[in-house]
């Protein structure tokens, strides 16, 4: 299907990788748009880098609203990158004013995208990372793998 499912971890090498899979009503697998998403438990202000090269097609960085109310979903700061193979990666829960790329920017694997923060639906500090394709104007989460670089 997609030739290159491999991604590097979206953090600099010195960051300890801790992946969490939320359960219950917030479980990723309950929603087609986030089925294969992972949450990296990292401190606020952690550098986020591109897990794969592509073009920045969406950003938001003006929110400092967050909490467990699901209505806060539109308050998530994020970066979305479109890859060569047509897939997208989204990097969610960035800090207010902490997105370091612009829409239209070309990024290489490893380029700085921004810094984690509190925004959107969350409690513990984390980066939500997801790969998806677009079908009928909706994002559908697709499987991916990480490789150490
Ligand atoms: Zn998540």
Automatic annotation (TrEMBL):
GO MF annotations in UniProt: metalloendopeptidase activity
CDD domains, per database record: M23_peptidase
- InterPro entries, alphabetized: Cell_wall_metabolism_enzyme (IPR050570), Dup_hybrid_motif (IPR011055), M23ase_b-sheet_dom (IPR016047)
A Pfam family annotated for this UniProt entry: Peptidase_M23
Domain M23ase beta-sheet core, first and last residues per copy: 35-133
Could you say which residues form the signal peptide?
none
| PANTHER family xrefs | MUREIN HYDROLASE ACTIVATOR ENVC, PEPTIDASE-RELATED
Name by which UniProt lists this protein = M23ase beta-sheet core domain-containing protein
Which species does this protein come from? Answer: marine sediment metagenome
